[in-house]
Amino acid sequence: MTMPSIGTRPALPGWQADTRHAVWPAVMVWLLLVLMTVPDGLAYDTLDLGIAPESGSAVSRLAWLGLGAGAAGMLVWRSRLAVALAARVNPALWLFLLLALLSLAWSIDPGLSARRLYRLATVVMVCVALGLAGWQAHRFQQVLRPALTLLLAGSLLFGLLRPDLAVHAQTAAELAGAWRGLASHKNGLGSLAGLGLLLWLHAGLTRQTRVLPALAGGALALACLLLSRSSTALVAMLVAACWLVLARHWPRSGRGALALGVAVATAALLLAALGLIDVLPGASWLGSPIAAITGKDESLTGRTGIWALVVEHAQRRPLLGAGFGAYWVPSPGDGNEAGEIVRQLQGFYPASAHNGYLDVLHDLGWSGLLLLLAYLSLHVRDSLRLRRDEPSQADLYLAVFFQQAIGNLSETHWFAVQSVDLVVMTLASVALGRSLLALRLAQRVPAMRPSAGT
């Protein structure tokens, strides 16, 4: 079926809607999820020793190069659709990527920034590629849900067969006996499980799958979430799950009030995030309830001490930061600035600020943090726009936002190239833009308009 032009110009002559060529982009997403979940070289025996490789293995580098080339080829092949899709995707995402690229000019470690920028660009291209072939309204969850379920099933099996590798061996109270499964850390498994549970809950609520598979998938995800003992992941999942249930049963006559409530909740959550890391003068009280909500102590399991040091370091370059991904090196020492925090923490190396908002501030300064806040705000705005025509799909994108926004209060996931959450959030942004593009086209071809109940 030939699609009409957009607006008054014949922008996309010959653009056809089809379900062909859907497998390859999905395979790329699945491979990306595995690469960002499983430790390089399956080196589980070194995780508890705190040994980080200086660079990826040959297999890992080849996989990343292949993903980049494959995704770029897809973008060139369907360049007209790619341009139209890019125009509908959250503009703050592109501005953030541009700022990250420009940060090579002032990065404290340009080589490390360049390597991490390549991974970030690859993730974005793979996610865009998924929107270029075989698209349909539920593509986001239909690709993610089975992939995450397989990773969770593998984690459970791995833990049963090799608990010496799949369970943390440290004796610290927050780690002792906690499962990491196929991931590198318990929080990684917790985040995967929380996302998986949300996807199965959404599938059950919207009848996109039968009851028994939804219950089985949800039970698997819940088991992994509880075994990970990740309190933040649990709280983030509960908040997002409550949103899905509330939105599903909210009366149609009260859509305006619900949208207003989402906007207020978003503003409060983002302000609390800034108050928690104490970067807004006089606003530290905004983050005070977080510890109680997540079940952590007043120091949020030692994170506040790390945050104070990172904030102090970020104040040296307040506007543009230290460069994208340039500070947290694999092996800190006298030759890089990360060695300073190791000395201040008496030999302990946190490897991140354990707060996604703070790490963006540290990497790209207030310019980057404001773009992050704009990106999240526009994601919520666009989701509310989509909700007028595709309410259940928009509700899922909002649930992903709530889950990610809360998870980043104590872990670094925003634009972190080592985190599978980067794939999920970027894919949600692209899928949201693709849905809005489809609705724009439906204005010219009413028969293509999706059902309001989907």
From TrEMBL:
Coiled coil: none annotated. One of its GO terms (molecular function) is ligase activity. Pfam families: Wzy_C. The chain crosses the membrane at residues 21-38, 58-77, 89-106, 118-136, 188-205, 234-250, 257-277. Residues 219-373 form the O-antigen ligase-related domain. It is a multi-pass membrane protein. Keywords: Ligase, Membrane, Transmembrane, Transmembrane helix. This is O-antigen ligase family protein. It is found in: Membrane.
